[in-house]
Amino acid sequence: MRKIKIMEHISLDGVMQHENSEDFAHGGWTTPYRSAEGLAAVLEAQGTHIDLLLGRKTYDSWTQYWPKAGDNPMANSLNNGKKYVATHRPESLEWGPVEDLGTDIVTRIRELKSTEGPDLIVYGSSTVVAVLLEQGLVDELVLMVYPVLLGTGKRFFSDTADARELAFVSTKTTPTGVQLNTYRYVGKLGKG
Fold first, then answer.
1. Which of 10, 121, 123, 127 is paired with 41 by a 20 to 30 Å CA distance?
2. How much is the pTM?
3. Cross-sheet strand order for the sheet of 119-123
């Protein structure tokens, strides 16, 4: 049985958005905090032989970068892994190996999770993340928390998300102050 692992880069105030847009001018905010130690910690947390669960926006964004990123451990793991994509336009998927999740993504993800294979890693893909958390399909969350406050932007945890309980597993801090906090998904928040 495969594990589903969510890996998100977030600001201290929970912003996960990375690209500039009309209402968000802080694109590239993670760049100054990159380090060799940070990359090693991310690769250790994600693993090198992985498959990806992605929303269409993340898939399209990554299609522009990772296939051209050259020979390096991160690019190799992302490029070689199978991409399972939530999309209404499966005919336009180019970056492979790739498969669309179909019209019932919850059923398809449950099927994938029950098979043998590498862990299923989710980056970005806020809509997919919300469904995975709601359906209790997440095994682990790795939140890469950056020492910045952005104030605005798409947030990882929405105001409408159901209360959930996570169990702390570990933390690592990079030389640039990024904390990789790993949590095991427990389930709905119990009454204490």
1. 127
2. 0.91
3. 98-100, 83-86, 50-55, 119-123, 4-11, 140-146, 179-188, 164-173
Over the stretch 23-38, which tens digit does the pLDDT of each residue have?
778 888 899 999 999 9
Q: CA-to-CA distance for 155 and 186, rounded, in angstroms?
A: 21
Average pLDDT, integer, range 72-101: 94
DSSP secondary structure, 34-54, as one string: --HHHHHHHHHHH-SSEEEEE
Record the tokens describing residue 155, joined without a space: 């947030």
DSSP 57-95: HHHHHHHTTGGGS-SSHHHHHHHHSPEEEE-S-GGG--S
Separation between Cα atoms, residue 74 and residue 76, nearest integer Å: 5
